[in-house]
């Protein structure tokens, strides 16, 4: 609007007023012809031609910028994308700027037109350049010839490499697996390819230590038990330190067939007392309100779990006790049908008639190609005293007791080792009358 008002004032001052004065003076001097002039001017044809003449004059003045109605301004276009021209199949280029800033300088009218245009073509032309380091100009193409421009940065230092290829074994990582229901597991994953081709600069290819398909369970259409397929899985290359390496993949993405299962197993709970009870006291029996729990996890994990031990310090237990205890979750187990149970303990006096058994000594963790044996008969049999409630020790036999020495890392030779005693019933106490024995390790024949 300011430009239009300026134009109007200009023509009013320099055209209409002077022309009106000129006509008035001519009319006054040629008084006799005034009526003829007025008649001529009032004709529609005259007015049309006069308007056309003034329009042509105005267009000429504006187009040739004979008069500046406003000073030059500047406009900055930030983060403009860069189009790089090169042979992408043969070369890898490093050092290219992703975006540049463009500053345009010109009249407000020209800048307005430039701002409306979406065609800000910024290019780096690497055609004909060979592998190596190069400094190249960043060019900007624009439609307005009267606009000055500045590109920042205007020069890029690039390194061109020959593009080479290599083959890598493809593995996978599962993302967001914790978002599955706690009773579910990824039972198996089968990728549609076992190898991928990686492409890039030779030094980048040499850095790649692993290529992985990142399988996100969030991409599953459903998270229930059954067979599922995920398409368009993203690939990533990593170096030996786990950093991402920027290379191309062929194929760019893969698919995977995934089996979701819910393996489970029911296992009993075992009570394991810890510490020494008060003098003269022993636990005669125990009972869990929940004696078995169902565990969920991968098949290879739960197949190795036969029971769950619940340990409890009984040093302060002096009478019948009922309490709530936590069920420890074994390593690798995802979920359990119950996380706690009530435990009832029955306490009685220790039997005044402990039972003794003679147990043959055994050795564990003997290295391959070696055998262990006691140095004499006295070191081969261990007398074990069983203490506890009468009702407990009455039901224990010698087959329920094991006496052993640990021979881990022992080479051929003679050793004096500590005796360990265990029993199948945790409510009893097993005491070896001999705490150390002499054992010799020899090569097997």
> Which class do the helix and strand fractions yield?
alpha+beta
Strand content: over 45%
Distance between the termini: 111 Å
Number of strands: 30
Cα-atom radius of gyration? 47 Å
For the largest beta-sheet, the strand count, sense and barrel status come to: 10 strands, mixed
Unreliable stretches (pLDDT < 50, length at least 5) are: none
Number of helices: 7
Choose one word for the global shape: elongated
Give an overview of the whole structure.
It is a single chain. The protein is an alpha+beta fold and 445 residues long. It folds into five domains: 2-63, no CATH class; 73-153, RNA Polymerase Alpha Subunit, Chain A, domain 2 (Beta Complex); 167-256; 264-349, RNA Polymerase Alpha Subunit, Chain A, domain 2 (Beta Complex), CATH 2.170.120; 355-443, RNA Polymerase Alpha Subunit, Chain A, domain 2 (Beta Complex). The protein is 18% helix and 47% strand. It has helices spanning 2-29, 34-41, 44-63, 108-116, 202-207, 299-302, 390-393; strands spanning 73-85, 91-94, 99-106, 121-125, 132-137, 139-141, 148-152, 155-175, 185-191, 195-201, 210-216, 226-238, 244-245, 248-250, 253-261, 264-274, 281-288, 292-296, 308-313, 321-326, 335-336, 340-349, 355-364, 370-374, 381-387, 401-406, 413-418, 420-423, 429-432, 436-443. The strands form six sheets. Strands 2, 5, 8, 9, 10, 11, 12, 13, 14 and 15 form a ten-stranded mixed sheet that branches. A five-stranded mixed sheet has the order 6-4-1-3-7. The longest helix has 28 residues, at 2-29.
């Amino acid at each position: 609007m300011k430009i239009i008002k300026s134009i109007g004032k200009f023509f009013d001052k320099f055209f209409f007023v002077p022309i009106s004065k000129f006509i008035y003076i001519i009319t006054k001097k040629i008084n006799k012809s005034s009526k003829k002039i007025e008649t001529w001017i009032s004709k529609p044809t005259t007015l049309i031609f006069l308007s056309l003449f003034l329009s042509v004059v105005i267009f000429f003045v504006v187009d040739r910028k004979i008069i500046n109605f406003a000073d030059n301004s500047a406009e900055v276009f930030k983060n403009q994308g860069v189009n790089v021209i090169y042979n992408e199949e043969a070369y890898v280029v490093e050092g290219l700027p992703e975006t540049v800033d463009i500053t345009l300088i010109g009249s407000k009218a020209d800048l307005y037109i430039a701002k409306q245009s979406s065609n800000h073509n910024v290019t780096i032309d690497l055609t004909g350049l060979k592998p190596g380091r190069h400094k190249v100009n960043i060019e900007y193409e624009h439609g307005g010839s009267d606009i000055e421009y500045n590109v920042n940065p205007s020069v890029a230092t690039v390194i061109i490499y020959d593009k080479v290829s290599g083959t890598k074994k493809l593995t996978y990582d599962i993302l967001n697996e914790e978002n599955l229901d706690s009773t579910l597991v990824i039972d198996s994953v089968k990728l549609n390819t076992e190898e991928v081709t990686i492409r890039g600069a030779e030094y980048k290819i040499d850095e790649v230590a692993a290529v992985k398909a990142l399988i996100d369970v969030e991409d599953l259409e459903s998270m229930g038990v059954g067979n599922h397929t995920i398409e368009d899985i993203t690939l990533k290359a990593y170096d030996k330190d786990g950093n991402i390496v920027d290379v191309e993949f062929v194929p760019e993405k893969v698919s995977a067939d995934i089996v979701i299962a819910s393996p489970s197993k029911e296992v009993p709970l075992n009570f394991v007392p810890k510490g020494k009870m008060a003098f003269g006291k022993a636990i005669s029996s125990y009972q869990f309100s929940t004696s078995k729990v169902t565990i969920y996890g991968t098949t290879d994990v739960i197949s190795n779990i036969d029971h769950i031990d619940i340990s409890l310090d009984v040093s302060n237990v002096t009478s019948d006790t009922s309490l709530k205890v936590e069920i420890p979750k074994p390593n690798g187990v995802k979920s359990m049908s119950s996380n706690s149970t009530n435990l009832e303990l029955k306490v009685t006096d220790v039997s005044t008639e402990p039972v003794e058994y003679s147990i043959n000594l055994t050795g564990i963790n003997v290295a391959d190609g070696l055998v262990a044996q006691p140095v004499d008969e006295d070191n081969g049999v261990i007398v074990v005293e069983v203490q506890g409630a009468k009702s407990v020790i009455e039901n224990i036999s010698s087959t329920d007791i094991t006496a052993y020495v640990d021979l881990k890392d022992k080479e051929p030779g003679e050793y004096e080792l500590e005796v360990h005693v265990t029993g199948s019933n945790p409510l009893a106490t097993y005491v070896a009358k001999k705490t150390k024995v002499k054992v010799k390790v020899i090569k097997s024949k």
